[in-house]
Amino acid sequence: MSKNRRIGNSKSCKAVTLVTSFPKDPFMKWGLDFVGPIKQVGRYTRNEYILVTRDYATKWVEARALRINIVIITTNFLHECILTRFGCHRSRSSFH
């Protein structure tokens, strides 16, 4: 048995049940993430980031390549691609 495995007393830990919450309706909970900065692919392409949103219920994905990752561009993307097409969502999560 390695030294790392012997650290801690496993008998003193209480078992905790993990509870997952799935949205009941489609398009009510969205995940939001930025990918990048990415390497420039073409000579004329100056996009450095990809903004990705995903609906938790249906796994629907929307993505857009962006030059910069600032709040106003993210807000415009959410308004144009999410709110106007799918309505107002109940919750949003962001991963960093």
**Largest sheet, if any?**
4 strands, mixed
CATH homologous superfamily - what is it?
Ribonuclease H-like superfamily/Ribonuclease H
Report the helical percentage: 10-25%
Low-confidence stretches: none
Q: Name the CATH architecture.
A: 2-Layer Sandwich
CATH top level class name:
Alpha Beta
Gyration radius, in Å: 20 Å
Mean pLDDT: 76
Number of E-type strands: 4
Number of helical stretches of at least 4 residues: 1
Task: Assign an overall shape.
Answer: flat
Description:
This protein is of the alpha+beta class and 96 residues long. It has one domain (26-94): Nucleotidyltransferase, domain 5 (2-Layer Sandwich), CATH 3.30.420.10. It is built from 1 helix and 4 strands; from the N terminus they run E-E-E-H-E. Strands 3-2-1-4 form a 4-stranded mixed beta sheet, covered by helices on one side. 3% of the residues are buried. The mean pLDDT is 76.
